[in-house]
Amino acid sequence: MTRDSTRHYIEKWDAEDVEAWESGGKDVAKRNLIWSVIAEHVGFSVWSIWSVMVLFMPTDVYGIDPAGKFFLVAVPTLVGSLLRIPYTVATARFGGRNWTIFSALVLLIPTVLTLVLMMNPGASYTTFLIVAAFAGFGGGNFASSMANINAFYPQRLKGWALGLNAGGGNIGVPVIQIVGLLVIATVGNTEPWIVCAVYLVFIAVAALGAALYMDNLGNQKADMRAMREALTHRHSWIISFLYIGTFGSFIGFSFAFGQILQINFIAGGSTPAEAALQAAQIAFIGPLLGSIARPLGGKLSDRIGGGKVTLYTFVGMALAAGVLVTAGSLDDAADGAPTGAIMTTYVLGFIALFLLSGIGNGSTYKIIPSVFEAKAQSLPLDREGRASWSRSMSGALIGFAGAIGGLGGVGINIVLRASYNSEANSATMAFWVFMAFYIACIAVTWFVFLRRPAAGSTGGAAPTAPEPRESTTVTA
């Protein structure tokens, strides 16, 4: 490893070289990981800024009903998810340090626009949608950050490193919700611009830290051709589908949880200002626990396999969704506002989903490098060539899976919008849909990554060489 400190450039990086790793490589990787987490953290906060802004938007002032607010928070989710595909290849093309600086500074655009718009509540709904779309810039940061850190760490430590990087970024969601809570608790729900002003400072810190302490790697190859090649492998599509259930749940519920609570508190007789404060006091807990749980999912997967952890996670998520279905059905059948017991059940069910989705985020992403590491062993390349191919494929799929997973968050808000617009005017229908999807994810995870065909049984078809199964490539 040769590092040019003046250019923040490392010409040749081999994380699998144990001697180089122990003689200083791990310190370089750790420094880049720290500032990658900080920049991604701020990106997630800006991405989810509208989940906070809707708590400052009484219908009688802004003219946007609850259904409109669900769609409003879905727009940055959609844009951020789509941006993850080009962001994935950006670090290899422009350098991890360079792109982190740029992607952090770009966050100034949606933050300033949101600040100005929230000070002018008479703007049209279309204007709100356009400004919310710019917040999607924050969602793209995840893909470039993960692809960059994937290149810095050896295979044996990827689960923990990627989990820590993603978990630290995910915490940006509850942190901005806590900032919103502090603003509502101190000055009320009439000064949302304060939240934006705070994040202008955080963005500057993230960009400056990346400029001073991060590095560009010279031997990285991740382009659109790599992404196209990664998508020729069926495991890529399967992992992306599973990530809809884990990350899609995390980001979708993060954006929607506060709004669901606010709707229920208003139904219970609270004023919009009171409901905003009550919702803000609870809403951040779920995303916080889910973010903290993500590195745990990666660590568990390093020990027992991403496939097993992912399966158990989806079983738990299906049960948690069942709890929400039960609470929602009881609430729909009763007259009047939801009781204290039903509200408690709602909160516990959602917190369980956040925790489990966080674990599942870490375990699903652990499957990615494991699968391509196994596939690389059959390639006619030397050790360095196989490692380079595995890194390239893993980095490409990290972005694509992140994009598809983010679209799950869009789906959650659209399903909730449709559920509240239905005759029942509640979220119960949406809870049924979520439970059914988690059951489908259980079946897919077991069939692809954990099922063992019966000896001698080929189902009447000619035997074929099986693709590597993730659970056989990860050891404790």
From TrEMBL:
Predominant location: membrane
GO cellular component entries: plasma membrane
Subcellular location: Cell membrane
Membership in a protein family: Belongs to the major facilitator superfamily. Nitrate/nitrite porter (TC 2.A.1.8) family.
GO molecular function, one term: nitrate transmembrane transporter activity
Domain Major facilitator superfamily (MFS) profile, first and last residues per copy: 238-476
GO BP annotations listed: nitrate assimilation
InterPro entries from the UniProt entry: MFS, MFS_dom, MFS_trans_sf, NO3_transporter
Membrane topology listed for this record: Multi-pass membrane protein
The protein, known as: MFS transporter, NNP family, nitrate/nitrite transporter
Keyword Cytoplasm: no
Annotated TM spans: none
UniProt KW keywords: Membrane, Nitrate assimilation, Transmembrane, Transmembrane helix
Organism: Rhodococcus triatomae
